[in-house]
Structures are given as structure tokens and as C-alpha cells.
Amino acid sequence: MKITRTTSSRIGEANLKNPTFGTQFSDHMLICKYRKGAWEQPEIKPFGPISVTPALHTLHYGQALFEGQKAYYMKDGRIGIFRPDMNAKRLNHSARRMFMPEFPEEWFLEGLKELVNLDRQWIPQNEGHALYLRPFMFGSSEFVAARPSEEYTMCIITSPVGPYYAGEVKVKVEETYTRSAAGGVGSTKCAGNYGGAFFATDQARKEGYTQVIWTDHKNHELVEESGTMNVAFVIDDTLITPPLSDRILAGITRDSILTLVRDTGILKVEERPIKVQEVVEAAREGRLQETFGMGTAAVVSQICTIGFRGEDFEIPVPSDGYAMKIKQELGAIRSGIKEDPYNWMAIID
Ligand code: COI
Questions:
Q1: Which residue of 82, 210, 256, 296 sits with most ligand 1 atoms within 8 Å of its CB, as the best mutation to test the pocket?
Q2: How many angstroms separate the alpha carbon of residue 228 from the centre of ligand 1?
Q3: Domain limit, last residue, from 161, 180, 206
Q4: CATH number of the domain that 60 lies in?
Q5: Which residues pair with 223 in a beta bridge?
């Protein structure tokens, strides 16, 4: 991997104490081009603009996807990236479905480690803060015929971040718009899944909510995800979350939480279809103990209100409840306070 270091670091201007999510970028980035059917040598170089043609394929047809993961300073001063192997696999899952070339896993992992090592000063050290790593790939051919791009660009940029949601998270059950459909691209992190969600999310914001709860495309009866997070409900001391499908993103935080909860026995776990009606009934009967979102950016975010057909259901958000306990357990592994029996942390030497 070719590495060109910056000669003018911007670290002096960085706000690492109170960073706004995804608005500051560290000194270096990785870039790698796919041409003539093969990936060329990846290069790490100073972060900066990439010039593109107006006929850039992805601007017209949206063959674009991304990943998100985090690097942390651990308690003993080591640096670890949380489960990057899972991101590598999910990136290639997205690539296959979007008819894009898979990126070699070992380059992905090596590139992340090199970048984080080079920009280690950019990792914020406050509780709940991290260096967010944003790998992304896009079709970079110059033509507007509606066929797959022939050239692709893989990039990794990194950004110091704090908590994604500040304050209360209120969600509205969305019954008009749909995030994904069976046979579609809902299980991928293609750019369009996010762009396509902005309109419905904005409608919900105008009604006073933070995010939507997506429901199934056919009948809007089943809960799917909440905004950019997987969602879990605690009803009668059981954690219930929708099962993975081609409509739902296989969240790595979701997988980690389910593993932890099952292994520690904090709660019973049910991965099964759950109807909005079941959630609403449980809320009415006082059996909906907690609701939370799970995601790389959001980590574990407690949901305090669910809006459904004009009615708001207030959900308890205890500071010593299940969601916070799960968040603590996960945090303890990430920070190295607790042993990492799953080898989730990829340590940077
Ligand atoms: C993530 O948690 O990695 C996400 O995909 C959220 C992102 C859209 C900010």
C-alpha cells in the first residue's frame, strides 16, 4: 500500500471535545481504483477533493454504497476497531447486490488499520466518542448509458464523532412510505436506501419526531427498522427484534447485542416478526418496558415516544434499565474494561 503523508496536518483546528457527527475529517484518506476488471494498488494520501466528470456514472445511476464502523482509544491506551471483519463482509454483500466488484477483505482491513494508525491523534478520547470510519465505493466510469459502470473507486475517510442522537428519540410509525421491499436492496448499505428515506423522515420531523419506524411494504403492519438503526422492544422481560431478511440491514451492533444478551442471559431474546399492533397493545397495557435503536452511529439509543396514528405512547427510558445495561456491557468490551471473549476488537499495534 502506497502511503503519502500530509505535510500540513489540520489536527490543530480540530474540535475533538464536542464534534458534530460527520463534519470534520482527519488528515488522510484511502483511495483505490478498479479499472479493466481489477483493483489497482490502494493508496493512502492527504484528505482532499477528488475531481469528477459531470458524466460520472454514480451521479446518474447511483451505484454507490458505504460502510460505517468506529475506532476507539481503549482504557490501556491501545487503539481498537470494533469488528471490522464484519464490515468488510457486509461491504461485499452490498457490492454483489449492487453489481459492483468486491473489494479484497485483507486490503479493507489493512487500509483501515493504516489509516487509523496514521491519524490516531484524531481519535477523540471522551466517553461515547470515537473515530468514525467511512468506507465507500462508487461507479466512476464516464458515460451515461444505463448499464453498469466499468470503473469503480473505493475510498475510506475518517471523522471524529460524539453521540449521534443528543437527547430524546421520538419515533413515528411510518405507514405511507417504505424503505425497502422483498427482493429489493434493503439489506445493503447502498446510498439510495438513505437518500430515499430523507423525505419521510423530514415529514416525521415536522410533526415533532426524531425518526420513523419503518414498516413492511405490503401492509405496513410489521416493524422493520427505525431510521438508520435496527430496533428492539422489551416486552414482558423479552427482547424482541425483527428477523433479518432482504428488507433489513444486518446491523453489526444488532448482532453484537443479541450475542451479548443471549450469552449473559440479561433477557430472553426473540428474533421474530413483530406487528405494530403488538407493540401498541403492550404499550397500552404497560408491558412495553423499553424500546431502543441499535447501530454503529447510534450505538444503543433509547426511544422515549412512539407515535402511531396520531397517538403518542410514552415509553420508559430508565437510566438503569436493560438498554443502558446492554450499552454498558458493549462499552466495557470496546474500551477493554472487560475481557473480549469474542475477539471483536481489532487491535492496532
Ligand atoms: C451507521 O450507523 O453506520 C449508519 O449507517 C448511520 C449513518 C447513516 C450515519
A1: 296
A2: 6
A3: 161
A4: 3.30.470.10
A5: 215
| pLDDT at residue 167 in the model | 78
pLDDT recorded at residue 71: 97
Domain membership of residue 41 as a residue range? 2-161
**Rg of the chain in Å (alpha carbons):** 21
Res 115: pLDDT: 98
Mutating to test ligand 1, I would choose from 67, 159, 228 the residue with most ligand atoms within 8 A of its C-beta, which is 228
pTM of structure: 0.96
Question: Ligand 1: residues whose CB is within 6 Å?
Answer: 68, 194, 228, 295-297
Q: Which atom of ligand 1 is nearest to the CA of 132?
A: 3
Query: Rounded to the nearest 10 degrees, how much is the dihedral formed by the CA atoms of 40, 45, 51, 53?
Result: 10
- Helix residue spans in the chain (DSSP H): 57-61, 84-97, 105-118, 191-195, 198-206, 252-264, 276-284, 322-335
Structure confidence at residue 171 (pLDDT): 98
Segments of the chain with pLDDT less than 50: none
* Residue 178 within any structural domain of the chain: yes
237-268: per-residue pLDDT in tens?
999 999 999 999 999 999 999 999 999 999 99
66 alpha carbon – ligand 1 mean position (Å): 9
